[in-house]
Amino acid sequence: METLHAATATATDTSAPILIVLAFIATAVYLVSCFIWPFRPCSRCDGAGRFRSPSGRAWRYCHRCKGRGAQLRTGRRILTYLGNTRDRGTRH
């Protein structure tokens, strides 16, 4: 005689906590990279700091990055803001 086993489904949905931990790790890695490399190439001049004038004869400085060729990354702006907030709260 054959024994019948009931198919029981257990609710072991562990995907939400894993996704939260992975999102936290990804955010931490991004903020560390923003701490190490705070600048990104300017999106308008592609990091050159200048571009050709409309006539094509002369160079013009990029107005977006003021000729530096780099802009602060969004994560670095957040880190700076949080650091300044902490400093404002601990000064006497």
Quick take:
The protein has 92 residues and is α+β, with helices and mostly antiparallel strands.
Approximate strand percentage: 5-15%
Give unreliable regions as ranges: none
* CA-CA gap between termini: 84 Å
- The strand line-up of the biggest sheet is 1-4
Q: The biggest beta sheet, please?
A: 2 strands, antiparallel
Supply the helix-strand structural class: alpha+beta
Please give the radius of gyration in angstroms: 26 Å
Residue share in helices?
40-55%
* Overall geometry: elongated
Mean pLDDT: 85
> What's the tally of helices?
2
Order of helix and strand elements from N to C terminus: HEEEEH
Q: How many DSSP-defined strands?
A: 4
InterPro entries: HSP_DnaJ_Cys-rich_dom_sf (IPR036410)
Keywords: Membrane, Transmembrane, Transmembrane helix
Transmembrane segments: 18-39
SSE map:
Blueprint: H1 15-36, E1 39-41, E2 50-52, E3 59-61, E4 70-72, H2 74-90
Antiparallel strand pairs: 1-4, 2-3
Helix pairs in contact: 1-2
Give an account of the 3D structure.
There is one protein chain. This protein is α+β, with helices and mostly antiparallel strands and 92 residues long. 42% of the residues lie in helices and 13% in strands. The protein has helices spanning 15-36, 74-90, and strands at residues 39-41, 50-52, 59-61, 70-72. It has a two-stranded antiparallel sheet. A hairpin with a 6-residue loop joins strand 2 (50-52) and strand 3. It starts with 14 loop residues before the first helix and ends with a helix. 7% of the residues are buried. The mean pLDDT is 85.
